[in-house]
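user: can you give me the structure for this one chain? tokens are fine.
assistant: on it. calling the predictor now.
[tool input]
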Amino acid sequence: MRKIISLNQNWKFYQNDQCSQINLPHTWNAADGQDGGNDYFRGSCRYVRELEKPETAAGSRVFLEIKGAAMAAWVSLNGEELAVHQGGYSAFRVELTEHLREQNELCITVDNGDNDIVYPQKADFTFYGGLYRDVNLIVVPEEHFDLSYCGAPGIKITPVVNLKEKSALVTVETWQTGKGNVTVRVDGQSQTAAPENGYACVAFEIADVHLWDGIKDPYLYTASASLESGDEVSARFGCRAFSIDAQKGFLLNGRSYPLRGVSRHQDRKGAGNALTMEHHRKDMEIVRELGANTLRLAHYQHAQEFYDLCDENGIVVWAEIPYITMNMKNGRENTLHQMEELIAQCYNHPSIAVWGLSNEITAASAVNEDLLENHRLLNELCHRMDTTRLTTMANVFMLETDSPILEIPDVNSYNLYFGWYLGDLEQNDEFFDDFHRKYPERPIGFSEYGADANPQYQSSQPEKGDYTESYQALYHEHMLEMIEKRPWLWASHVWNLFDFAADGRDEGGKHGENQKGLVTFDRQTRKDAFYLYKAAWNPEPMVHLCGSRYADRAEDVTQIKVYSNAEEVSLYVDGGLFETQSGKRIFRFSVPISGEHTIEAKAAGQSDRITVRRVETPNPDYVFVKKQDVVNWFDQDEFDPDCYSVSDTLADLRANPEAGAIVNQMMEKGAASRGDVAEAVKDNPGLQRMMGRMTLISLLKQAGDIDEESVRQLNRILQKIKKS
């Protein structure tokens, strides 16, 4: 009989010769990895504990199971090194049997330092170090299901659905030590097989199959396998059929099933990545509240417990490895190993639909033969290990759509941030329409989009780059409509469901956080944009008044915005009916204000209430003040509309040889200072066309590193050039 013993308690943790007593899960970057400055500790630490030899029957084997050690780990017992593992997000096991004494010292050295072998090394999130998931002992009989291959469970279940016959053929494979027969049970059926070289394979026909059918009916079966020794393994599985069509998008069980959802990082304010089961459950509750039907689990393998929750809740998953941002010359084997572990450990989860090869890998790497070969090998590995799922990758926005790397995965996706980092919101529409028109046979998805928002910041005139909750809501209003009009987008994932740690960031009034989440890092505050998607995706009746944190308003007439999935919304001011509107999802009311007012929205039996106050001057706490803000450059200068200025578009300026030369020189200088990303933009004709529609001042504002006087000087130069 298999026995699992938790080793989460009573560890001594050593960092820089300082010792503390801790329990697992644990990360040493829970504080310094979230406070900004990009100075969190990256290096080597040790976890040490006493280990008593467990009571075992004769011939039993003992394995150490480590479910997550970021990013590389060395396991020693009584001073003898037994194993090395490179990869911070997958489980691994080490057999201890022959090395155990009655009393032992177990030491696990963990390192999240810089290197050129183990991914990730360059990305917009904190690379937490630590033993941040459970550590167990597994005691099994001498004859047992395999525990040595890539952290896999020893049982592999492949359901193939026949939609026409409403049946499923379920193949169950097992691996074991010893020659004893294996008995497999599925849906009340049982088969016994004699293994060959430790491998057995049986198949079951399930008639009138109950399908795993997304969020409405995520039905799960269980397959179990047992040996005569008493060892047993089991795994849940779901019978479903996935496909992706360039015109119809994602199909689940033969019908159109647009994947509309969010991405998730596995960290939390104050805890880092050392999450508990309670944390995982809370996150899933928020996913279900939102109404999303898909998750992109970025940018690495997540905890098995969370994949289980996705299975149980019918969430379609994009699973990926941390092959991200840049291609490391010495990192190829690590990408292949991490992908092998991901598939081996996660294969049985019915929620997983696609394997992600990489994320924004061309942001800091050229598309050369080494990069292409790495992706070909990863793609081949995926299809060799799993014939049932497709491969994909998330491409950075500046990657040309005719790049040969797009030909490698089965389907593609792009990360686009037009309307936030670059350009205008409408350029998202243009990009996908151009792609779909040019490549009608290629499925395309929208793997990332978002805008940072600090709920403290509010505005009646929100604009790109102001970090207001108000602008984030406007941004997502456009993006949601854009996506709904294009059902051929096989998947779309908001970046991100939650704010997350990125210790190198210092923006939007927060240190060390990416604030693109629909929910704050601590999970306590749902931003207004959250309720926009809830109104679109969750059929349960709801109504939400935007601007609950925007109490002080310096205008005589203010806009009150309501999100609801009802067809009619009534607005009440100070208890009296103000107006009733019919519409879809977004309702806008113009309300005169003179003092303090109670505003209430009612729809479909639901209500929401906020308070607003008329103030004489805008509340400065609502405004994010940039360190180097660009103000109105015309304040002290005369302006000639017949001459060029920084308010002209890049295309118009470049149409004039003299003005174009000035602008090109300035942009080349800026590109040189910003490195690879800017260089990639420079060489991308499609993006150059999009940028051509932007004004020079808007580009300068987005750069964020130019002062008022420099803008004035540039404007004075351009004002000397007559428009022809």
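assistant: here you go. The chain has 13 helices and 40 strands. The first strand starts at residue 3 and ends at 6.
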